[in-house]
């Protein structure tokens, strides 16, 4: 066994020159190396949508996005870092590059497949975003690339030890509401949630088949409290608990149930859910307690709650206002947390105690080398 390993590493070193021009990192990964793979929507997209044919509604590659940390816009929907950036920092990894970024890639650290606006349902912003199943296909392409470059055994080991984080669902519920779609006349809330969860389940199972064992999820927030929902959705009175939040609650219950089921069915499957529903609600209700001044109104945008999606002035509505200090706000724009709020979410995902994150937190999943 040892001999075989040395042999593989020798071969790997031998081909390092070839591999480095393909932009891959070092081979013979240290035993403790744990990669991070990222899937989902704008909460996790670090810039994939910069490279697809879409419209500025689903892009954040212009000012003032990113300015408080990166000093320029990267495509992240925040004034600075997003949740996966903090998780990578906590795990001693560099920021994980968007899969579609044409530049240098160290895929041995992981990859970010997330796409702003994406949902688990293909219909959600269809043609404008990379839906979850297409993200999975990108992951499968990466898997064959890794197998070619590292050899099957090392690639398998990398995928086996890696942590997979997925943020998806909000758009599947929010989009039909912002468009006043009649979809909820065709499906009961339970049926609709079932479709979203089964699409997500399919993707989890496919990643598992490729070797993935450790999965992390934020659950859905009280969607009626997002500035965009308060400002835009017909019939929303500004209260946090209306139809959209009811769907989020159903979704969160179904997500917990399906993950428990997968844990029973799939050998070695481990997961972490963070109760972002509660974490966000607490910050909206008591911003001061968590170091914010404003929990309801966004920092950047226009209209009621700054809920009209105009931050940056490059979308259909050109007028926008920008607050002086985004760190005082829970929401940076109409649907996305400020960097400071992202940091607090990431801390809860990383090391949150059982009342917010369980059955494992991400720190435990990263440290678990023996799945
Ligand atoms: C997910 O949902 C859509 C319906 O929007 C369906 O067409 C698609 O095949 C489903 N499955 C997956 C794995 O995405
Ligand atoms: C939303 O759609 C319903 C019918 O589907 C219609 O009666 C209602 O007026 C629409 N509301 C808005 C604000 O467009
Ligand atoms: C912005 O607000 C945060 C949180 O209240 C505070 O710590 C920071 O000093 C402020 N920055 C500036 C430039 O005023
Ligand atoms: C969870 O428990 C921690 C530590 O016991 C506590 O500080 C925190 O407020 C609790 N959070 C929630 C949402 O109950």
From TrEMBL:
Gene encoding the protein: LOC115992394
SUPFAM superfamilies, sorted: SGNH hydrolase
Coiled coil: none
Alphabetical UniProt keywords: Signal
Signal peptide from the UniProt entry: 1-23
Any GO BP annotation: lipid metabolic process
Name of this chain's protein: GDSL esterase/lipase 1-like
GO molecular function term, any single one: lipase activity
Similarity remark: Belongs to the 'GDSL' lipolytic enzyme family.
Short name of any one Pfam family annotated for the protein: Lipase_GDSL
Native source species: Quercus lobata (Valley oak)
């Amino acid at each position: 066994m040892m001999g075989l390993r040395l042999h593989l590493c020798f071969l790997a070193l031998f081909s390092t020159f070839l591999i480095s021009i393909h932009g891959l990192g070092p081979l013979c990964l240290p035993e403790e190396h744990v990669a991070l793979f990222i899937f989902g929507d704008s909460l996790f997209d670090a810039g994939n949508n910069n490279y697809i044919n879409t419209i500025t509604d689903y892009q954040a590659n212009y000012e003032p996005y990113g300015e408080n940390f990166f000093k320029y816009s990267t495509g992240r929907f925040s004034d600075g870092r997003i949740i996966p950036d903090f998780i990578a920092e906590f795990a001693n990894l560099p920021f994980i590059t968007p899969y579609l970024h044409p530049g240098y890639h160290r895929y041995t650290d992981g990859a970010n497949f997330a796409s702003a606006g994406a949902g688990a349902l293909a219909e959600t912003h269809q043609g404008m975003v990379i839906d979850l199943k297409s993200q999975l296909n990108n992951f499968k392409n990466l898997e064959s690339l890794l197998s070619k470059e590292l050899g099957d055994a090392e690639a398998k080991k990398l995928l086996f030890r890696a942590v997979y984080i997925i943020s998806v669902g909000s758009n599947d519920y929010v989009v039909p509401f912002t468009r006043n779609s009649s979809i909820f006349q065709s499906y009961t809330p339970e049926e609709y949630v079932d479709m979203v969860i089964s699409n997500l389940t399919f993707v989890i199972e496919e990643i598992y088949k490729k070797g993935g064992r450790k999965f992390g999820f934020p659950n859905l927030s009280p969607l009626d409290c997002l500035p965009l929902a308060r400002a835009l959705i017909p019939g929303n009175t500004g209260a946090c608990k209306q139809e959209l939040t009811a769907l989020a609650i159903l979704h969160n219950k179904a997500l917990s149930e399906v993950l428990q089921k997968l844990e029973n069915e799939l050998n070695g499957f481990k997961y972490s859910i963070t109760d972002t529903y509660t974490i966000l609600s607490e910050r909206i209700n008591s911003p001061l307690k968590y170091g914010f001044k404003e929990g309801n109104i966004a920092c950047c945008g226009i209209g009621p709650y700054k809920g009209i999606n105009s931050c940056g002035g490059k979308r259909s509505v050109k007028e926008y206002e920008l607050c002086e200090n985004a760190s005082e706000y829970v929401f940076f724009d109409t649907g996305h947390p400020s960097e400071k709020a992202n940091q607090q979410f990431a801390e809860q995902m990383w090391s949150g105690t059982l009342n917010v994150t369980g059955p494992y937190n991400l720190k435990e999943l990263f440290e678990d080398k023996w799945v």
